[in-house]
Design a protein that fits this description.
The protein is built from 16 helices and 2 strands. The protein is mainly alpha-helical. 75% of the residues lie in helices and 4% in strands.
């Protein structure tokens, strides 16, 4: 366990900019956006008269409407974090086994008392749990700062922030669901994670091209050669990947289902899974036949990546 934690710490130290600076930069962007919005509004709003009227209107609106608006705002604040988190994990895994070969340090790391299996496990655990946790901490801190800014603004407008939005905010539930969604999606994405690590293990150079071009070529060939679609897959690989994204347990804050706009899991355009935002529905995806097939694919990719890692040299 100590070796495993030391390897995870190594991953953090080697990727501090992506893992630490990026969430801090996102916090700064949110704060800059809030400051710009306030200054812009104050520039056109004479003595905050329009602001006071807007806050008064919100304060007098129905509590259920305020609760729904704040709830969607809580979850909507995670959208940008989710997007950037996906980019960071993608490029981290793409370089996780490639960078050691690129800088010719692989023999040094392989000489340490840590097996290739443990090394790969530490990299996978970093992508699945450490990085989402760091981004979640930044997301929560950003939310708290935005709450403070909103409360001060409402106070300056002459209203009570507790009655306007804080009493119906329920941020802890939103924060917990966001973190659970990120963890669940990390498990759901294991086939993609395995593919990225496999590419990182064998790519001689430009791993991004090796990661993207083969799936694109296969999808085109499956569309072009009709019998390949008929006798192998019900749809092309691109369609499989789209279905995987539609069914993912990631929070989509701008979904619509049965005429209701709200936050849902994945994209509510089919009925293979219940898209309501609950822990139960996240677990339903993780204990399903598609997830079992995904684990088999991920196991094959990771096993091949481990084999390539064990044979890798500094050439």
């Amino acid at each position: 366990m100590n070796r495993f934690l030391a390897l995870v710490r190594r991953e953090y130290q080697e990727n501090r900019i992506a893992f630490k600076v990026t969430p801090i930069a996102l916090f700064g962007l949110y704060m800059a956006g809030a400051a710009m919005a306030l200054f812009t509004f104050s520039y056109f709003d004479n003595e905050f008269s329009t602001m006071k009227e807007a806050v008064r209107f919100i304060a007098n609106s129905d509590e259920s409407i305020r609760s729904q608006a704040v709830w969607l705002g809580n979850l909507g604040g995670s959208t940008f974090f989710t997007f950037v988190l996906g980019i960071v994990v993608f490029f981290y895994l793409l370089g996780s086994l490639y960078d050691d070969r690129k800088d010719r340090s692989i023999l040094f790391w392989k000489s340490l008392p840590a097996s290739d299996t443990l090394t790969m496990a530490s990299k996978l655990a970093t992508a699945m749990f450490l990085v989402p946790t760091l981004f979640w901490v930044a997301y929560v801190i950003t939310h708290i700062a935005l709450y403070i800014i909103a409360a001060v603004t409402i106070l300056l407008a002459g209203e009570n922030p507790w009655t306007v939005f804080m009493s119906v905010a329920n941020p802890f539930k939103a924060w917990g669901l966001v973190l659970a969604s990120w963890y669940a999606n990390a498990v759901w994405a294991l086939p993609v994670y395995g593919w990225l690590m496999l590419v990182s293990a064998f790519s001689p150079r430009l791993p991004l091209l090796f990661a993207l071009i083969p799936p694109a070529v296969i999808s085109v060939l499956q569309i072009w050669i009709d019998f390949l679609r008929t006798f192998t897959l019900k749809t092309n690989l691109g369609g499989v990947l789209w279905q995987w994204w539609v069914d993912s347990p990631i929070i989509n804050c701008c979904g619509e289902e049965n005429g209701t706009v709200g936050a849902f899991l994945g994209i509510p355009i089919d009925d293979r899974f219940d898209h309501a935002l609950t822990i139960g529905n996240m677990l339903d995806r993780l204990f399903s036949l598609p997830m079992l097939a995904g684990l088999a694919v991920a196991g094959a990719f990771l096993g091949l990546a481990l084999w390539l890692r064990s044979r890798a040299t500094d050439n």
